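Subject: Manganese ABC transporter ATPase

B.,
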Amino acid sequence: MIEKKLKVSHLCVSYHGNVVLQDISFSVDTGKLIGIIGPNGAGKSTMMKAMLGLIPKDKGEVEVDGKPIAEVRKKIAYVPQRSNIDWDFPIVVKDTVLLGTYPKLGILRRPKKEDKEWAMECLTKVGMGKYANSQIGELSGGQQQRVFLARSLAQKADCFFLDEPFVGIDVSSEEVIIKILKGLRDEGKTVFVVHHDLTKVESYFDELVLINKKLIGAGPVDDVFQPELMQAAYQAPLTMLGSLGVGV
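Prediction pasted inline below.
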């Protein structure tokens, strides 16, 4: 019987000879909501991109339920940081979400009526149905993030990877997004989130991957969100960690 896990083995990444990620290995259960945390510059986004094969890695393997991640790529949805997206690109909201159906369409196939209806259903699920004909660049940060979440939902993926989805968005959008992510988890989907707000860690995630260029800890939140591990990662005094929401 194949273990239901996502496994990262000996992941190493360097830029121009500078080590960014050093021999990171961990495994987490699939069907969980997993936070990737660590200080600024720890390599969180780099690790997510390297796991997905979006950037070169020096070495390392990633498996999902016993299969190399390259074999299950069509079942993976990725939402990049908002700062990495060209918001001036002339595309309306409904067409942005419709792009999520393309990986399953195959070469030269165009979306059908049912694909367009599914895209609108996903858009409605994130509370953005009335903005279907708006230009993506006209929306607020929180609205844009909801649209890109809808695009990932349109993929009907099994694994979701979101890079800093809560940065620069309004409270109501964050509440909508985390509710949807928890719903995906409850459906058996695996959700990875690069996250920076430590005060939300315990209420948002089932498991954590804590890094600072190397792995500090991985596993259930109660095991990883501990003062000694957080101090090792953030290299901050315990009194400061307390102000960030870490129990001391």
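The first strand starts at residue 5 and ends at 15.

T.
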